[in-house]
Design brief:
By secondary structure, this protein is mainly alpha-helical. About 70% of the residues lie in helices and about 0% in strands. It is built from 3 helices and no strands.
Length: about 70
């Protein structure tokens, strides 16, 4: 999620992709940490990040099905 947020912000201000994933992750983590500091809203953002991360893990670990044409 931090990589996604960092890449969105970097694409808005920089025309070329730098290809530096570490910079994107750090920028996204910084933005997420700032958002999590907001009172009464930080826990909701943290919950959204956790649910998104768990969903990404489930999609990554999913076994391919013979009927699924994507695999």
């Amino acid at each position: 999620m931090a990589l996604f947020i960092g890449s969105l912000i970097l694409k808005a201000y920089v025309r070329e992709s730098l290809g530096k994933e570490l910079l994107l992750v750090l920028l996204g983590l910084f933005i997420l940490e700032l958002l999590m500091l907001i009172p009464y809203l930080g826990w909701l953002i943290r919950l959204l990040v956790v649910i998104t991360g768990l969903g990404a893990l489930l999609v990554f670990r999913r076994e391919p099905d013979e009927t699924d044409p994507a695999y």
